[in-house]
Structure formats: C-alpha cells, structure tokens
Specification:
The protein has one domain: 434 Repressor (Amino-terminal Domain), CATH 1.10.260.40. Helix content is about 50%, strand content about 5%. The protein is mainly alpha-helical. The two termini are about 25 Å apart. It has five helices and two strands, in the order E-H-H-H-H-H-E. A two-stranded antiparallel sheet has the order 1-2. The radius of gyration is 13 Å and the shape is globular.
C-alpha cells in the first residue's frame, strides 16, 4: 500500500502528532500509515482524509493494478 498522507500533512503544516490528535489515534499509527505498513479501517481512512481535506482515493493506493488477471 502507498499513501500520500505525509505529502498532504506537510502541505498543511501539521506534525504527525497533530494529525494523530485530529483523528484520535496514536502518533505511531500515523507513522505506520505514512510508511504504508498499516492498512487502516475504512473509518480511520475516512477520518484521515477528512482531517487532510481530501478523499480516501487521493490518499491511498492499494496496488490493484498489479497482477494482470481478468479485467475485460
């Protein structure tokens, strides 16, 4: 999974701790999200997107295009 959380967060001048407070999680959760090492719940993904003024689709990329099977 790839994310653009850090890009959006820094553009808004927020620290990891400030973003964590906005979405009511620990700073470590934000660290893991930014590194793509944690798959958030839909609720958390939505909360982070809302706090950053964007959408879940803009923040997260799950690499669906890899694999190449099926699809029309």
């Amino acid at each position: 999974m790839q994310t653009r959380i850090k890009e959006y967060r820094t553009a808004l001048g927020l620290t990891q701790e400030e973003l964590a407070a906005r979405v009511q999680v620990r700073r470590e959760t934000i660290v893991f999200l930014e590194k793509g090492k944690y798959n958030p719940s839909l609720r958390l993904a939505h909360a982070v997107a809302k706090a950053l003024g964007t959408t879940v689709d803009d923040l997260f990329s799950f690499g669906d295009e890899e694999g190449g099977a099926g699809g029309g």
